[in-house]
Amino acid sequence: MAKRVALLPGDGIGPDVVASAVRVLRQVFSDRPEALSFQYHLLGGSAIDETGQPFPEETRAAVLASDAVLLGAVGGPKWDKGPGHLRPEAGLLALRKTLGVYANMRPVRAYERLLDASPLRLDVAKGVDLLIIRELTGGIYFGERERGDTALEGRFAKDTMYYTEMEIRRVVKKGFEAARDRKGHLTSVDKANVLDSSRLWREVVDDMKKDFPDVTVEHVLVDSCAMHLVTRPERFDVIVTENLFGDILSDEAAVLTGSIGVLPSASLGDGPGLYEPIHGSAPDIAGKGIANPLGTILSAAMMLRHSLAEPERAERMEAAVARVIDAGLRTADLARGQASVSTNAMTDAVIAAL
Amino acid sequence: MAKRVALLPGDGIGPDVVASAVRVLRQVFSDRPEALSFQYHLLGGSAIDETGQPFPEETRAAVLASDAVLLGAVGGPKWDKGPGHLRPEAGLLALRKTLGVYANMRPVRAYERLLDASPLRLDVAKGVDLLIIRELTGGIYFGERERGDTALEGRFAKDTMYYTEMEIRRVVKKGFEAARDRKGHLTSVDKANVLDSSRLWREVVDDMKKDFPDVTVEHVLVDSCAMHLVTRPERFDVIVTENLFGDILSDEAAVLTGSIGVLPSASLGDGPGLYEPIHGSAPDIAGKGIANPLGTILSAAMMLRHSLAEPERAERMEAAVARVIDAGLRTADLARGQASVSTNAMTDAVIAAL
Ligand SMILES: CC(C)[C@H](C(=O)O)[C@@H](O)C(=O)O
Ligand SMILES: CC(C)[C@H](C(=O)O)[C@@H](O)C(=O)O
């Protein structure tokens, strides 16, 4: 039986990079072409244009029936003016919630050959090898909201950061497990000196320690973490945190090594996983054929490992990407004024390196 | 009539650095010693030890009757185990709320001679010259909280991010005014693609643009801002944002230039202002006489400018600090293994440079 991969190219450069990843996947499975089947579906701005909805019912049904979902990117200035629930981002949030992918895993590591594009000093950047696990389906992203008028202070608006023990426990568990498979150190990030939800978060983490005696755990405040990511990033192994803190910190972490175009992500729950590069839809270079496909190719590799039980093929893809980077090949985003290659040429090189 | 300065040394290195700032202030006013009067009061852990409360009633009355408040730092492991409302941080939050200091101003700039302590590449760090204005008395720091039990998912905890139009308007106004006095560019940071409070924030900013035609305004999402602070910090002039985002971003910004020990802050409202260095209480070096007093001295300079109508004396203090830095004098935090001087020697040097 073929494994069903739902492809959601989305907007901007999304279609380019998803097409690249599909080409690489087909090559990796050239000995068993029947093992994977691909179906394209609409999400984000392009879905709004065609159906009026950022996350059409057809897409919802398809992703729920799939084994894994590979996403390009969503959003663009064209759709920025619509009401909140008709923006591309609303489609992305609904997709995450529908799939129940509560754990967003973002590995960030220094590729030695790319470090000259890092804003950090070489000696600071070179030690970066961390994994941020961001809670993705709870917190202030999905809490109650309210708007209205006050008697004396004009309008008001309210958002709610809400977490249950179950929600915290399941994502923190992913953190402990990942730490055990890596360097054995887990950093839980919160704002427990101010927030009740953070105090509950901290209690749950402390509760779980006894089940993972081989993992060392530390609690770090989100403001401290934002500092240490820049000053001493090598001190982190696995970071686990709630949705909003994870949004901010994972983007901060993504730029440390100069390789944001290369970074993948996996969002995991109990059903199909969702895989997407860290970079955005980059509408300014959409359709020019110069987008960096490596983040999406590495996301597809994570998909093989986490959703499709194909760890060896995942490793082959990752090794091929490392080889083309080592060989000095660069798309425009990484070229820093040097010669650069197209999306297609980069994809061809990865396929050749497999 | 003497201007009344309430001194809150606090915990850890707080007493050392406040004593230094007082020595410098006395010197700056040596021609008019009667112009300032100083009173010491308890706050934080030391207040808990003496009175059982982190923000004793005596301190509350005194700060409200003062012209300005100079704070060292609060907190330390000794008081970390107490219940939330009996922690040093609770005293700090109550102090801010009591004074109504809704606008926390944190200038961050590169001192050329300190850039070798920056984690950033020299070419990235050297352009940093920005001011973060953080809303300080609203948002999720002061919203309703709740804890309880759910039927199916264990315990829950809830925090509320709440803003009124009035609260947003008054701090954003400080942002526009500051931008007008600097390079004329205001960056408003929010998460308007997710949060209702951010959408209201953005509306208020857009509303106010017409009153400041000489200021250019851009909206940046908090996750993007966390990236750009590291990759292109020189693009920012004044940043204005809500309390929690400001907590995270201002700490991130504080480490960019390698000079966190030198950075001051001013928290302004309609009554007495609150002035404190950015660095924490550093319990590990408390009492050793090696803390960096420059952040507190520069905070005292901001106090002269913003609360005591003494801009010329403020400039003299700032110029003196710049001179000792240029002369190569370093406390241990900035020495990077080179020779370093004590808190007192650094203070003497500033006084000599006045
Ligand atoms: C588009 C936006 C809603 C989204 C988020 O904040 O989760 C994005 O920033 C991300 O991190 O994937
Ligand atoms: C101690 C803590 C409550 C405080 C805050 O978050 O406001 C601190 O981090 C700060 O930024 O002054």
TrEMBL record, chains A, B:
Catalysed reaction, written as an equation: (2R,3S)-3-isopropylmalate + NAD(+) = 4-methyl-2-oxopentanoate + CO2 + NADH
Note on how the cofactor is bound: Binds 1 Mg(2+) or Mn(2+) ion per subunit.
The protein's required cofactors: Mn(2+); Mg(2+)
Enzyme Commission (EC) number: 1.1.1.85
InterPro entries noted in UniProt: IsoCit/isopropylmalate_DH_CS, IsoPropMal-DH-like_dom, Isopropylmalate_DH
Location in or out of the cell: Cytoplasm
Signal sequence bounds: none
Marked site: Important for catalysis: 141, 191
Keywords of this entry: Amino-acid biosynthesis, Branched-chain amino acid biosynthesis, Cytoplasm, Leucine biosynthesis, Magnesium, Manganese, Metal-binding, NAD, Oxidoreductase
Binding locations of Mg(2+): 223, 247, 251
Main enzyme class: oxidoreductase
Residues that bind substrate: 96, 106, 134, 223
SUPFAM superfamilies noted in UniProt: Isocitrate/Isopropylmalate dehydrogenase-like (SSF53659)
HAMAP family linked to this entry: LeuB_type1
Membership in a protein family: Belongs to the isocitrate and isopropylmalate dehydrogenases family. LeuB type 1 subfamily.
Name of protein: 3-isopropylmalate dehydrogenase
Record gene name: leuB
